[in-house]
Design a protein that fits this description.
The chain is α+β, with helices and mostly antiparallel strands and 891 residues long. Strands 1, 2, 3, 4, 5, 9, 10 and 11 form an 8-stranded antiparallel beta sheet that branches. Strands 21, 23, 24, 26, 31, 32, 33 and 35 form an 8-stranded antiparallel beta sheet that branches. A 7-stranded antiparallel beta sheet has the order 13-12-18-19-20-17-16.
């Protein structure tokens, strides 16, 4: 039995009371062409370069309703298990259930080609707003303007594809205020490389879904092929073996499906009162029916269980979204936002077309009168039957293909046909029992919603009960054969009209009303919304400029925010979970099938470091569609994989908060550890690590500056001298341990000085360091700034001070560079120190705590650091270690 729970309130009334109109905190699903540079610079002192954005953009993958990323030069793709689960289902058989056993290709020849799967990579973006909006004339009705823009969009797409050879799509942004042309590289040969068992990928099942803490290895690997060979990808994300840390800024790149944050109050009310109740009623109904179906036997469960999980996920998500819309505080905030925009609009020149807010309200009132009927027949839904989808596609193709591409329904224009045929000719298995279940369910739904005497229902049932009609339709359907589909598609309308196939007959019978309802919706609702929201968008731009992001549209966006825990019911929820927590959770819930661990995870427990981070949370702004999104740090390294949000995030479709709402990700360290220690996927691990090394080498080759010099060979202290005079007389042991220089705690200070030549200007030193024991600075790096010395203190004055000593005679705890940072003992941190003629800069991991102009500054060192000049390293009453110490001379 599924455990139910009431959704916890998140203090919306207090949180939203002073909600600003513009974005706040880490809010935003930003266009890559318009990142929030001012916000990032002000909040995090980071400005993503165009090259950085382009590289990540071209490393990201649109995974057919989800997200993913390329992580090796050989086209290896990482996404969620639950994003790839449909492919696993299609590739499974009763004898080989990949959802239960998992999968690992021992060689590339064993990688399994996925039927009908295509992925796309966004290659370029062009603003075509003027061209699309100019297609509509001022005197056009909303319906005429909508049709004119639709045709122009098709022309733009067709011209782009002919000119570039790339898949092209005009994307509507800001509900019609902007139009961008997206060009994609499209690949339809995608093969499964590795997938863990569903039991570990969805550990905790529906009980833990949208909850935190979580313990899921929700990952899956595919490979992109072209001409039967893995693609060679210039752009891919380098793997981070060290993951992220609490408070570290992260970026999420993915394809959030849809948000409604810019809807009017009346439109939101329609969503709350009509859309969500209808959707939830349907989901609850389908969940019960699928549970019954799966309960009939092992094979029924195998072919239906994935659909059940999908419905349960959607039901839980929509329940949370409706809970947010039912909170009056949300509507008060939305009303206040709208009032501010409307007051500003009143100061602008009057528009002869009338008040856009009132016209949207009227359109929604009109839509209420035919919403249910339109929803039932929209796009062939809710006919979840695969056979009906095929028949529906064949009927529509026969009707649409004779028309010029710009005059067709948008999903059948030339630019979409490759995708249409890929799905239509898929050899994926079709299960008759599941088909009969879906057809019975939907025919019953039609009768329930419209009445048994409705002409449409009478036509659909053809004088039989829903179950009898479903059996007749499925058993008598010949579309299970791919060659039959191809023949009918090629022959077109004559074949459709001559067909005796009952499923094609049903699709033909329902298509006229489906088209009529679609046209009515486009003419009376969608066209009005596009026109009015475009006008509201213009007002918003006039008031706020381009500082606001558009609602999500399923296209590539950037979100950001630090790794950060939260407080729930007075209890602090830490940001990370671990393997140790996974096993503890399994023991706590022993006997519950949702919390059973796969056998190999039990057998390999001792091989795993229990403290390895497994999942983590961050404040990045995500929703459905972000599943599979890579989490990257400032250096563009992959540190995690988005797979969920917590329960408090389910209202993010409408409003954003970072108070408790969190995105949930799988940690890169856990994925690598599981591949190596649990699944023996050594070749896959090697490919990931080799890809990271190749990326490093490529970056070095691309660097126009002189070659990087290693200051430490990782084996000996050649080039270094241990300091033994003065305060260093009682020094600790200095030696090379595990590839690092170890400076053990002495009486006070332990230090070394570099004996080779060292520059005084225009250089950068990079290194890793960690505190092993003690409570003071584990690295005091003395270095030259022109003719003056200075020392970088890391972890001084009780363990947390970062700063330069001295600046204008003041030490690291009291000058303009002073910062506080909690350093964990035993953890390695990345550091960079850069000295130019203009500035002294320091980076720690992805943060830049020090950026000091040199002009009119005096630099010096305390007497204890004099023996370290010109370049040396010391510790104070603390044991520290240094490794990967490199010098780069700057141009």
């Amino acid at each position: 039995m599924t455990r139910t729970r009431s959704l916890r309130r998140t203090g919306w009334c207090v949180l939203l009371a002073a909600w600003p109109l513009a974005v706040r905190a880490d809010e935003g699903m930003w266009l890559l062409t318009a990142p929030p540079r001012d916000l990032l610079a002000r909040q995090y002192r980071f400005d993503p370069s165009p090259e950085w954005l382009e590289h990540v953009q071209k490393s990201c993958v649109d995974f057919g309703g989800g997200s993913g990323s390329i992580i090796s030069p050989d086209g290896l793709v990482l996404t969620n298990h639950h994003v790839g689960v449909d492919e696993l289902q299609k590739l499974s058989t009763p004898e080989r259930n990949l959802l239960k056993t998992g999968f690992l290709a021992a060689t590339r020849r064993e990688e399994l080609k996925c039927p009908a799967l295509e992925v796309k990579i966004l290659w370029s973006i062009e603003d075509v707003t003027e061209r699309i909006t100019a297609a509509a004339k001022p005197e056009d009705t909303p319906a005429q303007a909508y049709e004119a823009r639709r045709r122009e969009m098709s022309r733009v797409e067709q011209a782009s594809r002919e000119a570039t050879g790339l898949d092209s799509e005009v994307v509507t942004l800001y509900h019609g205020a902007r139009y961008h042309l997206y060009r994609f590289k499209r690949y339809d040969d995608v093969r499964l490389v590795m997938a863990p068992e569903q039991q570990i990928a969805f550990f905790g099942g529906d009980t833990d879904n949208f909850e935190y803490p979580r313990y899921d290895l929700d990952c899956c690997f595919f490979r992109i092929y072209e001409n039967d060979q893995p693609i060679r990808s210039e752009h891919y994300l380098r793997w981070s073996p060290n993951g992220g840390s609490d408070g570290e800024l992260m970026f999420v790149f993915g394809h959030p499906g849809r948000t409604d944050r810019q809807l009017t109050v009346d439109h939101l009310a329609f969503t709350r009162d009509v859309v969500f109740p209808y959707t939830l009623n349907y989901l609850w109904r389908e969940e019960v029916k699928l549970q019954t179906f799966c309960g009939r036997g092992a094979e029924h469960r195998r072919i239906g269980h994935n659909d059940l999980l999908s419905v349960q996920n959607a039901r839980k998500a929509r329940t949370g979204g409706l809970a947010g819309l039912l909170d009056p505080a949300v509507f008060r905030v939305k009303a206040a936002e709208e009032e501010r925009i409307r007051r500003f609009a009143a100061t602008q020149p009057a528009d002869a077309k009338g008040d856009p807010w009132s016209r949207i309200a009227a359109a929604q009132a009109n839509y209420r009168t035919f919403y249910t009927r339109h929803r039932l027949l929209r796009g062939g839904r809710p006919f979840n039957s695969e056979l009906y989808r095929i028949a529906f596609t064949l009927v529509r193709l026969a009707e649409e293909l004779p028309k010029p591409s710009p005059e067709r329904l948008r999903e059948y224009r030339d630019s979409e046909l490759d995708s249409v045929y890929l799905a239509l000719y898929s050899p994926a298995p079709i299960y008759e029992e599941l088909e009969i279940h879906y057809m019975t369910s939907v025919l019953s739904l039609l009768a329930e919603q419209l009445g048994a005497g409705d002409p449409l229902v009478v036509k659909a049932l053809a004088g039989r009960s829903p179950e009898q009609r479903a059996v007749e339709l499925v058993r008598g359907c010949g579309l299970k054969d791919v060659e039959t589909r191809k023949r009918i598609a090629q022959e077109g309308k004559p074949a459709i009209e001559a067909s005796q196939d009952p499923m094609i007959g049903l699709a033909r019978a329902l298509d006229p009303e489906s088209r009529a309802l679609r046209k009515r919706f486009e003419d009376e609702v969608e066209s009005v919304e596009r026109e009015c929201y475009a006008r509201i968008g213009a007002v918003r731009f006039a008031l706020l400029g381009e500082s606001v992001y558009p609602d999500a549209t399923g296209t590539l966006r950037m979100a950001f925010g630090p790794i950060r825990g939260f407080t729930e019911n007075g209890r602090a929820v830490p940001p990370f979970t671990t393997f140790e927590g996974l096993y503890r959770r399994a023991e706590e819930r022993a006997g519950d099938p949702q919390f059973e661990l796969p056998r190999r995870w039990i057998d390999r427990r001792a091989a795993l470091d229990p403290h390895t981070p497994l999942n983590f949370v961050l404040t990045a702004d995500i929703i459905g569609g972000n599943s599979g999104s890579p989490v990257v740090n400032r250096q563009g390294r992959l540190t995690g994989l988005i797979f969920d949000g917590n329960i408090q995030s389910l209202v993010l479709d409408f409003v954003y908060s970072d108070e408790q709402a969190r995105a949930v990700a799988v940690d890169s360290r856990a994925i690598l550890a599981a591949l190596e220690k649990v699944y023996d996927a050594r070749d896959l691990v090697e490919e990931i690590r080799r890809g990271a090394a190749v990326a490093e080498a490529g970056a070095a080759r691309a660097d126009p500056s002189p070659a990087v010099t290693s200051l430490f060979d990782g084996k000996t202290l050649d080039g270094w001298k241990v300091i033994t005079d003065g305060v260093y007389a009682d020094h600790g042991k200095v030696e090379v341990r595990d590839g690092a220089i170890a400076l053990d705690r002495g009486g006070k200070q332990t230090g070394i000085v570099y004996t080779g030549e060292f520059p005084r200007e225009n250089y950068e030193v990079s290194f890793e360091a960690r505190r092993v024991a003690g409570y003071d600075f584990f690295c005091g790096m003395t270095f030259p700034i022109g003719q003056q010395p200075c020392t970088l203190i890391l972890g001084g004055w009780g363990g947390s001070v970062v700063g330069l000593s001295n600046v204008d005679g003041q030490n690291a705890s009291e000058n303009v560079t002073t910062q506080g940072m909690n350093f964990e003992n035993g953890r390695w941190y990345d550091f960079r120190l850069r000295v130019t003629r203009e500035r002294v800069q320091v980076w720690i991991d992805d943060e830049q705590p020090i950026d000091l102009p040199r002009e009119e500054r005096e630099f010096s060192v305390w007497y204890e650091q004099e023996p370290c000049k010109p370049f040396g390293i010391s510790t104070w009453d603390t044991s520290g270690e240094i490794r990967n110490l490199r010098l780069k001379r700057l141009p």
